[in-house]
Each structure stands twice: as C-alpha cells, then as structure tokens.
Automatic annotation (TrEMBL):
Organism: Christiangramia sediminis
Protein name, UniProt field: Phage holin family protein
Transmembrane segments: 28-46, 53-77, 89-110
Top-level taxonomic group: Bacteria
Annotated keywords: Membrane, Transmembrane, Transmembrane helix
Length: 113
C-alpha cells in the first residue's frame, strides 16, 4: 500500500513540475502514473549499474556527477513513455533535482504517519 501511495505522490509531483517547468510536458494523469512507474523501475534497475560504472568520475567530482546520472534516468523515462517530454539537459537536471527534493519531503511526512 505504501508503494502505491508513493507512486501516486510521484505522479502528482511529475504533473506539478510539468506545469511549472517550461521544458517538461506530460499529456495527462495516466501518463504521469506511467512515468512514475518507469522512474521507479529505472531507479531500481539502471541507476545502481550507472553509479557503479561511473564511480571514479563520481568520486572525482565529489558526487556532482550523480546529477548527470539522474538526468540520464529522466531522459530514459522520456524515451520509454511517449506522452512525457523533456527538452534539454539543463531542464532534466532541474526536473530531477526538484523531483528528488519534493519526493524526500513528501516521503518523510508519509513515514511519520
């Protein structure tokens, strides 16, 4: 139940960020739910592999390369979901930062309940 609630909250954040950021568009709420599921799968499967492969670069940049990895995950979700579009690298980095920030706030509130 907690996982479904997290997916729905992520979909809501995706819709809100698509309305706020000029380079991000989502066709509808169902598309946002699909984006949330795809992001969860990519973060579970692909992100650890990318982090492991780019560990030396991540250490050299003191962890800032993780922003690029998050942008890559956003672009992969853009490629998998047809109604979700992100226009550029800068927008993808901003989107991933804001998504992570709002998710951490919402999930910490959810964990307290």
């Amino acid at each position: 139940m907690n996982f479904i609630l997290r997916l729905l909250l992520t979909a809501l954040v995706v819709v809100l960020l698509a309305k706020l950021l000029p380079g991000v568009s989502v066709d509808g709420y169902l598309t946002a739910i699909i984006v949330a599921v795809v992001l969860a799968l990519l973060n579970f499967i692909v992100k650890p592999i990318l982090v492991l492969l780019t560990l030396p670069v991540t250490v050299l940049t003191l962890g800032l390369f993780l922003l690029i990895i998050n942008a890559i995950i956003i672009f992969l979700a853009d490629g998998f979901v047809s109604g979700f579009d992100v226009d550029g690298w800068f927008i993808a980095i901003i989107f991933s930062l804001l998504l992570s920030l709002v998710q951490s706030i919402l999930f910490s509130i959810l964990k307290k309940d």
